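Is pyridoxal-5'-phosphate placement plausible here? Inputs below.
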Amino acid sequence: MNKIPFNSPFLTGKEIEYIQDAHQNGQLAGDGKYTELSSSLISKLLGSGDTYLTHSCTAALEMIAILLDLRQGDEVIMPSFTFVSTANAFVLRGITPVFVDVDPITFNIDPSKIEDAISSKTKAIMAVHYAGISCDMDELISIAKKYNLKVVEDSAQALLSKYKGQSLGTIGELSAFSFHETKNVISGEGGALVINESTFLERAEIIREKGTNRTKFFRGEVDKYTWVDIGSSFLPGEIISAFLYSQLIEARSITDKRISHWNKYHKYLKSLELEGKIRRQIVPDFCEHNAHMFFIILNSLDERTQLMSYLKSQGIQAVFHYVPLHSSPAGIKYAKSIGSFDNTHTASTCLLRLPLGCNVDVERIVDAINKFFMS
Ligand SMILES: Cc1ncc(COP(=O)(O)O)c(C=O)c1O
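Reply from A.M.:
I modeled the complex. Tokens:
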């Protein structure tokens, strides 16, 4: 019996050709031909925004935490149900993440929970587009305007998703994407910072180049480069960028293939939902999604554990996440939590992610799920 892994990275077949070209060009450090090609293509795919490639989404989030110029003790509101980097990037700068619950439909930050979490120290709201499905951006922006806060998008999972026709990652002032091998478009590790507010541009360039004005020097705008701000080495080398470029060219077709599998899951699992056995993923009308993930919600943790182990016995790897950050050891130490976390708890205990990629045998997986519920 063939195993179905949870994640099968999709390769376009052009990766090695572009890497070979980068090798022949002889510039292997960052900001060469492929960094330029990839970053311009990302901005083109998004329809707006200035893109800076980074070596991960985590790095882009760390750049955002510096760019926002917050002080020790300032606060950023975010969902507890997210990947650790959303919070850790801020903690590294002495900023306090303030966790709130997610909504029960999308498991994105619940806008109705945000106002209770706002204090005089609040500076920003993190819109994490879980599973590539958009947060309710109008709601978030109207709260942000009322309290003079920035909106940052953690678009790690959201390349090519849209909110009311506008690309995710281009709505908040700043946003971060991931090209980790588990994402739709990949480079092993990789990421991008997208800037939608031009006042951040000059400083971003410096922060990304170890706090120096080296990029200006390369453009001939200064006669020597020097240390001008805080920063780090946030840029990827050309080998990674060349790999990424081959993937970005195929971004639309990769997404369309994933959507066709997502649609099959959605269709085939309808009857189990009607029988009350599971709940399928819900995409709000305001969102055009990128099929980053297909998940189901079981009725209990026990049932999820049993289904997971049944699928494993059938050679199918299904997985769950996240341990809620508000209850994690570092979350308790470094962050604040406001209100109850009932929906975060449901997501963390009852959500099961099914294998999804460009080539996945949805029929076999659905068949196994049906058999589990018949037994
Ligand atoms: C919501 C979210 N934010 C940030 C990250 C971090 O991405 P990376 O692994 O590229 O640093 C991830 C990775 O899965 C994520 O899902």
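Short version: The longest helix spans residues 251-268.
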